[in-house]
Specification:
By secondary structure, the protein is of the alpha+beta class. 20% of the residues lie in helices and 20% in strands. It has one domain: Roll (Ubiquitin-like (UB roll)), CATH 3.10.20. Strands 2-1-5-3-4 form a five-stranded mixed β-sheet. It is globular and about 30 Å long. The structure holds FE2/S2 (inorganic) cluster. FE2/S2 (inorganic) cluster (FES) binds next to loops.
Amino acid sequence: MHATWKLADGREITLDVPEGESLMQAATRHGVPGIIGECGGSLSCATCHVVVDPAWADRAGPPGAFEEDMLDITEAGREPTSRLSCQIRMSAALDGIVVRVPQG
Ligand code: FES
């Protein structure tokens, strides 16, 4: 399974992401610029912020209640399909998902 990150400078990075791994874990493991994952996925840093491509937003689903609160403190500002990527776990339904890394 794979996912694609679109960077602020126009580059795109596509990575293999095993089922069950979060997009934050995959991004930090491969050094995707702009994804820090400072808290390790415990929903307390918001440095894993991504904007889900609108075509994938339904499948990725809405943020959870606590994630909602954290999205309000993202450095780049929240967008309609913003998510914290530590909360998006790869699954068959998300194979091929495209997200954008917001400019910090
Ligand atoms: S890694 Fe900290 S909130 Fe996602």
